[in-house]
Amino acid sequence: METQASSSPTTILSSINPDSIDTIPILATILAKLQPLQPSSAPSPAPNVISTRDLPGATDELKHKLQKARMQVKELPDIERSVKNQEEEIARLEERIGRQKEMLGRLRQVGEEAMRVRERAMEI
């Protein structure tokens, strides 16, 4: 028995937007502030600089954002479907599109022929 996917278009949850799952800016900020561990006799680093020992605390926001993104991805429709299943559906849909294009081509031919007949009838 063939399982059919929902015939309605898939909509992404409104809670998911690119900003809610984009972690690159946070990571870039952390890396820009990261300073190698310096000997204890060295002067203390600038306020916007973090040392490697402070890295775990500095990455909390990144960890939370990744955790939230993981939960949001799990809520996406059809996320449990296998790649093979999705490829089979794509093949079926492509076949359907092909049949629809063929039908539209035939309808166009019928319409063009009807137009020619009508034009000939008006000439008489």
UniProtKB/TrEMBL annotation:
<dbReference type="GO" id="GO:0006357">
    <property type="term" value="P:regulation of transcription by RNA polymerase II"/>
</dbReference>
<keyword id="KW-0539">Nucleus</keyword>
<comment type="subunit">
    <text>Component of the Mediator complex.</text>
</comment>
<dbReference type="Pfam" id="PF07544">
    <property type="entry name" value="Med9"/>
</dbReference>
<dbReference type="GO" id="GO:0003712">
    <property type="term" value="F:transcription coregulator activity"/>
</dbReference>
<dbReference type="InterPro" id="IPR037212">
    <property type="entry name" value="Med7/Med21-like"/>
</dbReference>
<feature type="coiled-coil region">
    <location>
        <begin position="76"/>
        <end position="110"/>
    </location>
</feature>
<protein>
    <recommendedName>
        <fullName>Mediator of RNA polymerase II transcription subunit 9</fullName>
    </recommendedName>
</protein>
<keyword id="KW-0010">Activator</keyword>
<keyword id="KW-0175">Coiled coil</keyword>
<keyword id="KW-0805">Transcription regulation</keyword>
<keyword id="KW-0804">Transcription</keyword>
<comment type="function">
    <text>Component of the Mediator complex, a coactivator involved in the regulated transcription of nearly all RNA polymerase II-dependent genes. Mediator functions as a bridge to convey information from gene-specific regulatory proteins to the basal RNA polymerase II transcription machinery. Mediator is recruited to promoters by direct interactions with regulatory proteins and serves as a scaffold for the assembly of a functional preinitiation complex with RNA polymerase II and the general transcription factors.</text>
</comment>
<dbReference type="GO" id="GO:0016592">
    <property type="term" value="C:mediator complex"/>
</dbReference>
<comment type="similarity">
    <text>Belongs to the Mediator complex subunit 9 family.</text>
</comment>
<dbReference type="InterPro" id="IPR011425">
    <property type="entry name" value="Med9"/>
</dbReference>
